[in-house]
Amino acid sequence: MDVILGAIRGAFGLMIGLDATLLEIVALSLQVSLSAVAIATALALPLGAAIAVSKFRGRQTVIVILNALMGLPPVVVGLVVYLMLSRAGPLGELGLLFTPTAMVVAQAILILPIIAALARQAVEDAWREYQDQLRSLGAGGWSAALTLVWDIRFSLLTAVLAGLGRAAAEVGAVMIVGGNIDGVTRVMTTAIALETSKGDLPLALGLGVILVTLVLLLNAGAYTLKEAAQRRYG
Amino acid sequence: MGEEPMRAPTSLLPLRLEEVSFVAAGKTIIDRVSLAFEAGPRTIILGPNGAGKSVLMRLCHGLLAPTSGRIAWAVPERPGDRRRQAMVFQRPVMLRRSALANVEYGLKLAGVARAERGAQARAALQSVGLAELGDRAARVLSGGEQQRLALARAWALRPEVLFLDEPTANLDPGASAEVERIIQAIHAAGTKIVMSTHNLGQARRLGDEILFLHQGRLVEHAPVDRFFNRPASAEAGAFIKGELPWT
Prior knowledge:
The complex is a heterodimer of chains A (234) and B (247).
Chain A (H helix, E strand, L loop, with lengths): L1 H15 L3 H34 L5 H11 L4 H12 L14 H38 L3 H11 L1 H17 L2 H7 L9 H11 L2 H33 L1
Chain B lengths: L14 E10 L2 E11 L5 E4 L6 H9 L6 E5 L12 E4 L10 H11 L4 H14 L15 H13 L5 E5 L7 H16 L3 E5 L3 H7 L2 E6 L2 E7 H6 L4 H10 L4
Parallel strand pairs in B: 3-7, 3-8, 5-6, 6-7
Antiparallel strand pairs in B: 1-2, 1-4, 8-9
Helix pairs in contact in B: 2-3, 2-4, 3-4, 4-5
C-alpha cells in the first residue's frame, strides 16, 4: 500500500512540477496522435461518405469488412507497418522505422477504419432521410454531399474523436514501429509500459492519470458538443 | 436566339405520361398509366394505401425513373437547369439551420443571387405565417410549423407545378386547415397543384379534378363533382363509400 501511495504522491509531484520528461512525452503523444487523426480523417470521411451513398457490387462485404476493421489489433497493425518499413521491406529505403513518422502512419492505419465506418453509418442514415428532398430542390452530386456532410458535422466530429481516443490510448502499434526510444519515439502508452516494468511507478502513474484525463475530457467534450448541437439545431 | 423574338419561357405544362410503369423488386407499383396534367385545375390523387399515389408523384417529379413508358414535360428538363417544379413531402425534411436559412438554401440552389435571397425568403415565411419564427432552428419547430416551412421553401421558388404528397397526413386539424389555406393561396398565385391525399373531405375542398388510383392503375380521371356523385368505376364507388364515414 505504501508503494502505491508513494507512487501516487510522486505522480502528482511530477504533474504539478511540470516535469520536463513528462511534458516531452505528453507533447510527442499528442503530436503523433493528432497527426494520425488528421491524416486518417482526410481519407476516412470521403471514403465513408462515398460508401454510404454509392451502390456497387460487394457493397455489403465492404461494409462488413470496414466494421470488422474497427477492432483491428494495434500490434498487428504495428507488425505490418514494421514489415513495410524495415530495412528488407518494400519501403525500407525511406528509413522511417523507429521515427515518429512511422508511428503516425501506424496509428493512421489503425483508426482510419474506425472513422470511416462511423462516418459511413452517419452519412447513410442522413442520406436516406435527405436524398429525396435535396434532389427535389435540385442539389445533386457534390452540392448534395457537401450539404449533407455540413448538416451532420457534429456526428462526424464524434467519429473523429473516437479515432483520436483510440490513437492516444493504443500501445501495441507505436511500440513496434517506434521502438520506444527515449526522447525520440517515447509516448505516454509506451512510457507507461516501460516505466512499470522498470519499477518507476510515479512516472508511469502520472502519465496514466494524464492519459485517462485526456480521454475523459475528449469524450466529455464530444458529448457536450453533440448535446448542445442537438438542442440548438434539433 | 436567331430571329425568334424574346419572350417568357413557355409553360412546363402539360405533363404527359404514356404507358408509364414502375416495378420495384418484382412488384408492379404503377401499371401502364397514361394521362396529361394540364395547367390550371388542382389535381387530387386519391386512392387507398399502397395504390401508388406517392410513387406516381415521385415519377412525375423526377425522383424515380419509370421502368417503362414515357414522362414528358412540354419543355424538357435539363440537368443543371433551375427546376420549375417543386415538391412537398409527407414528412418535411429540414436542414439543421434556421427556418429562414432553410428557405434561403432552396433559393440558392435555384440560382437566386445572395443579395436577394434574404428578402425573398422572408416574404415566403410571411406568406405562410412564420415570419416571427425565421430565426428559430427549423428542426425544433412543431410538425405543423415544419410543414408550413416546407411550403414556404417550395413556394419561394415560384414553381410552375407543385407536387404535395399527403401534406397533412401527420397534422392535427388546426395545422391541416392552415396548410390547406396555404395550398389555396399557392394555387391562386398561379401554380399548378398536384396533391395526393386519402382524406375525401380535403379532396372535395381542394380539388378540381380527381385521379383515382387502385393497385397501380389509373381507374378514374374525372372532375371532382362527377367523381364523388357519379363514380364510373366500382372501385371508386367502394372507396368513396368505405371512406366517407371517416372524413
